[in-house]
TrEMBL record:
Protein name: Bifunctional glutamine synthetase adenylyltransferase/adenylyl-removing enzyme
Cofactor(s) annotated in UniProt: Mg(2+)
Pfam families for the chain: GlnD_UR_UTase (PF08335), GlnE (PF03710)
HAMAP family: GlnE
Assigned protein family: Belongs to the GlnE family.
Residue span of region Adenylyl removase: 1-447
Gene behind this protein: glnE
Length: 952
């Protein structure tokens, strides 16, 4: 840090003791001469000592006490509260400026007093400065509104509703962190166009513009009493060239068409601070998509670089290196760092959207975007710099951010802050600013990471006309000619040719780095093929090119994932929003549990406008995509067993179905009214019920309801119970399968309902119970082993469990049961087993997953009448444990089946992740798994092998 040079013309500073004594004595003499009452107060030694401390820090405070002697008695209290607000008499407008200015200086002096004497920390001082500005705005606006109402009436919209001005505070006022002598950044707006209803009517735009100008003048104009608050209106649309007050509709159009990057930073902190604050806050919610993008938005760094470059140029031009706000390592760098990360991630993570800097910084630390120790350093630095800035301004109530040049002023600031001298303060400040600069530079510097090899860069820049395929061969591509042809086709495509200059520059940096990473991957050709598909999908999405450009870790991670998983490559290309997950710090951490996934689904739907079910469905799908992607990455990286991934996917599906049912019920209720006494439940069968869902699996669902057959809904379009619940079930299926911009939630399969595809979509509980008791086939009871309720009315879910337990727990003829189970499995093997000499069908092959499922289901049906513990589990591992616990399976066989299930599920999941059929080349692990299943089948007297020449 470059410290302020010693000014040769400055008065040499006296020793600290002499300086304190001189300034304190002068202040006490000045105040003692104001009135006998003050002279009496000054007989208190403790008060004299406090005044001397305040005098060392602030000439402004002493001058205010001289001009307002009554204030000293107020401050003499142990914990002086706020100074009373003035009353602005409508009949005496000429007195308003004086009253406001005296109030501002009195309350500001109280803030100095509390800060210097240690009654407030810097956070409290900033909050106090903010409250003071808000109070003055509120008082002044109320006064001028009365004045305008008397002269012009009130503005009314087309429906005759009265309107008020909305005053938005931006910058530190909006963030609630106003420094001591700051100006206030204001933007004026109003809800709707219209006209005032007074004798001298004005259009809304003129009315509110004049009102705003009158407000600014009342606060800002310098009088004999100084000013109240400096008002800066330059942050409004089009700056000084723009109109003074804007309707919300005009503001909407401006931000849609003209909004610039720096305005996103400015409006991030915006807050309605006076006038119709409720309308202002509601409008700010509609501005959120302009400020925060729905994706990780690394284009925000472009705006930051532009702003930072402009500030650096100004600092250099005006020799402002020691400016506490704009200089290197200053307050602005901390603000920019935090706001940039907020803009990058805030669209995806609502907890990062705060207006106040320190809470936002803590949220970034909690989200893993800033290391905890760095976060603490930045928080300490921010408080240090803001306190020093305040003290420099408190000295004479000057709007300055520069360190004092005068030697005595330097000494006063240092001594009042507890330093021995200026040099000690300067050393501490230098360390603080160096820390800030290092953190800020780290945000801007990491783009592009390791440079791409020159050969690949030159090759790419030469396409499509020049470039040699040999460069690709040298880099590590086996089929260099094929890769070269694909890259040339991509380079000459319309998507690349239509790019803007800025986007093309990004692409030219990204592609060589991607090529280098692909060449180093396990499958270079596959990685390249998938990369080109992805690039084609995101060429027009500048934010995603920016992400890859700015974050080398994301680029490397992307190539690694694409090389190893065709499924994830396909999903990322279809839904580039998933690129954000590659940078999510939580991806490599603990996987979310069922409660966390359910909370995420609920929050996604709640965050949308209730009148926009399409947006709610899209948001729910985005959450599902992101969470399933995270589960897939954990599986791909082998950070968890396949069984855990399958359970997590099932838990996610449960949460989604539950939320979709809520949405469907809301739509049916709105259309047809409530059905008194009715109950509805969704039952999950198959892999959903057994908590062994795969990536891309459909959901086997059965719908049940219970209601009085004669009941009719209470809406304007009433329906009887059967039709009401049929409509609800149809709506659930439609919502689950609806195509949104984030894809569809799930494919559904209803064929496991009673009587299959030829029956009604939804069954009454009584008819379902009767079907299971009277007409269900053995294979349907096998399917019931894995069935469980996943959503709906709790009491109906319990009733289903009772029916299931009664059905599975009935006494059975075990030989006949074995015959039914073997007949069905032999038939399935004959029709569905795709195994051949080179590959094994993991699901339908001999000794595969379905053989294991049939074995377990046979055991449950055969033993549940005697062992109630078999009725609770649904997933295969838990069922194996239960069968071993009741003695039906030998412990060693149960252990080997556990291992077999884990192997078969793991290999099958790997096939799914790479978009391959679940057919695997024989391995020792698979052979052992099949042998374990075969041994268990023999031990239980089951033979699933189709007879030679039979059709099973």
């Amino acid at each position: 840090m470059s410290l302020p040079p010693d000014d040769a013309s400055a008065t040499p500073s006296a020793s600290p003791a002499v300086l304190r004594e001189r300034i304190g004595a002068r202040a006490l003499a000045t105040l003692g001469a104001t009135s006998p009452q003050v002279e009496l107060l000054l007989e208190d030694p403790g008060l004299r000592e406090r005044i001397a401390r305040v005098a060392l820090a602030s000439d402004f405070a002493i001058e205010t006490l001289r001009r307002q002697p009554a204030l000293l008695a107020h401050l003499a209290a142990a914990d002086p509260g706020p100074w009373p607000e003035p009353e602005l008499d409508p009949a005496q407008p000429l007195a308003w400026p004086t009253l406001l200015r005296l109030y501002r200086t009195a309350e500001s002096t109280r803030l100095v007093w509390r800060d210097v004497l240690g009654l407030d920390d810097v956070d409290a001082t900033l909050a106090g400065s903010t409250r003071l500005a808000e109070s003055c705005l509120r008082l002044a606006l109320a006064a001028v509104e009365g004045e305008f109402e008397e002269r012009h009436g009130v503005v009314r919209d087309a429906d005759g509703r009265a309107q008020r001005l909305v005053v938005f505070g931006l910058g530190k006022l909006g963030g609630g962190e106003l420094n001591f002598s700051s100006d206030v950044d204001l933007v004026y707006a109003y809800p709707h166009d219209g006209e005032s209803d007074g004798r001298r009517a004005l259009a809304a735009e003129d009315y509110f513009a004049r009102l705003g100008q009158r407000l600014a003048k009342l606060l800002d104009e310098a009088t004999a009493d100084g000013f109240c608050h400096r008002v800066d209106l330059r942050l409004r649309p089009f700056g000084n060239a723009g109109r003074v007050a804007w309707s919300f509709a005009a503001m909407d159009q401006y931000f849609q068409r003209e909004g610039r990057d720096w305005e996103r930073y400015a409006w991030l902190k915006a807050r309605a601070v006076a006038g119709d604050t409720a309308a202002g806050e509601a409008w700010l919610e509609t501005l959120r998509p302009f400020v925060y993008r729905r994706y990780l938005d690394y284009t925000a760094l472009d705006g930051l670089r532009t702003m930072k470059a402009a500030i650096v140029a100004e600092v250099q031009r005006r020799d402002m290196a020691d400016d506490l706000k704009r200089g290197p390592g200053g307050i602005r760098e901390i603000e920019f760092l935090v706001q940039s990360l907020q803009l990058i991630r805030g669209g995806r993570e609502p907890e990062l959207r705060g207006r106040r800097l320190l809470p936002a910084l803590r949220a970034l630390v909690a989200a893993g975007q800033i290391a905890p120790d760095h976060g603490r350093d930045l928080e300490d630095a921010y408080r240090y710099l803001r306190r020093l800035e305040n003290r420099v301004q408190m000295l004479r109530d000057a709007q300055t951010h520069a360190l004092p040049a005068d030697a005595e002023d330097r000494s006063r600031v240092a001594l009042a802050l507890g330093y021995d001298d200026w040099d000690a303060l300067a050393r501490a400040l230098a360390r603080c600013r160096a820390q800030v600069s290092a953190e800020f530079d780290a945000l801007l510097v990491p783009r592009r990471g390791e440079a791409a090899p020159d050969a690949l860069e030159s090759y790419w820049r030469g396409l499509p006309e020049a470039g040699q395929a040999q460069v690709l061969a040298d880099a590590g591509f086996g089929d260099a000619e094929g890769a070269d042809a694909s890259l040339r086709d991509f380079a000459r495509g319309n998507g690349v040719r239509a790019l803007s200059d800025a986007a093309r520059k990004r692409l030219d940096r990204v592609v060589p780095a991607l090529l280098a990473a692909a060449a180093r991957s396990a499958q270079p050709e596959a990685a390249l093929r998938r990369l080109l598909g992805l690039l084609q999908a995101i060429l027009r999405r500048a934010s995603y090119l920016a992400l890859l450009d700015e974050q080398p870790s994301a680029l490397a991670r992307l190539v690694d994932v694409l090389a190893r998983s065709a499924l994830l490559a396909e999903r990322i290309a279809s839904y580039p929003l998933l690129l954000d997950e590659l940078l999510d710090a939580r991806v490599a951490g603990t996987m979310p549990d069922e409660a966390a996934m359910r909370a995420a689904c609920v929050a996604a739907v709640k965050a949308q406008d209730e009148g926009d079910p399409e947006a709610a469905l899209r948001a729910l799908n985005e959450v599902r995509q992101a969470l399933s992607f995270r589960i897939a990455l954990a599986a791909l990286d082998r950070r968890q067993p396949a069984e855990d991934s399958a359970r997590q996917l099932a838990a996610l599906a449960d949460a989604v179905v539950d939320e979709v049912l809520r949405m469907a019920e809301a739509e049916v209720l709105a259309a047809h009214g409530a059905l008194p006494g009715g109950r509805f439940a969704v039952i999950g069968y198959g892999s959903l019920g057994g908590r062994e869902l795969g990536f891309g699996s459909d959901l086997d669902l059965v719908f049940l309801y219970d209601a009085d057959p004669a009941a009719v809904s209470e809406g304007r379009r009433p329906l009887e119970a059967s039709r009401w619940y049929a409509r609800l079930a149809q709506k659930v299926v439609a919502l689950l399968g609806a195509v949104t911009s984030a894809g569809r939630l799930y494919e559904t399969d209803m064929r496991l309902r009673p009587d299959g595809g030829k029956s009604l979509l939804v069954s009454t509980l009584s008819s379902y119970e009767d079907y299971q008791r009277q007409r269900a086939w053995t294979w349907e009871h096998q399917a019931l082993v894995r069935a469980r309720p996943v959503a709906g009315d709790a009491s109906l879910r319990e009733a289903f469990e009772r029916v299931r337990a009664q059905t599975l727990g009935r006494h059975r003829d075990v030989p006949a049961l074995a015959g039914d189970v073997m007949h069905m499995r032999r038939r399935m093997r004959a029709e569905l087993d795709r195994s051949d000499a080179a590959r094994f069908d993991l699901k339908q092959g001999a000794g595969g997953l379905v053989d294991l499922e049939f074995l377990v289901q046979f055991g449950v049906l055969a033993q549940a009448s005697a062992h109630a513990g078999l009725l609770q589990p649904r997933d295969t591992p838990a069922l194996l444990d239960a069968l071993a616990a009741c003695g039906w399976l030998a412990p060693d066989i149960a252990r080997s089946l556990h291992a077999a299930h884990a192997v078969l599920l793991d290999v099958g999941l790997a096939c799914t992740l790479d978009r391959r059929p679940r057919l695997a080349a024989p391995t020792e692990a698979i052979a052992q798994a099949r042998a374990a299943v075969d041994e268990a089948l023999r031990a239980c007297g089951l033979d699933f092998e189709p007879a030679a020449g039979s059709d099973a």
